Amino acid sequence: xxNYFPFTISDYKGTFGIVAxxxxxELNSRYFNIFSKYNYEGNGFAWEGIIKQILEKLAPDxxxxxxxxxxxxxxxxxADSKDTQLRILDVLVPVFNDDQVLEDYLSxxxxxxxxxxx
Length: 118
Fold this sequence. Notes:
By secondary structure, the protein is an alpha+beta fold. It has one domain. Helices cover 44% and strands 16% of the residues. This is Immunity protein 51. It comes from Chitinophaga costaii.
């Protein structure tokens, strides 16, 4: 089974979910300080904001193939196909598993996209 840390995936009745339980002890302990270093809360909305910006830069063709249903305590996205789900993860997993690369994106992030409703 593939490792998509810090994300988990689901495939249920044509829904191809990508989830990050950002308030879980495992994710909070790893990512809270990275986000807060750049004055972001590290909540689900901040994750959605940076993920959109990463996709805009690295894979803009995927943006129209994903919908978000993020909450304060978790990042939730739904791809329109299994292929899209895996392509999104191919982009995001390396970024979120290299603290310096993630910090580079956070340091250049548009703050207006890092909150609810952005």
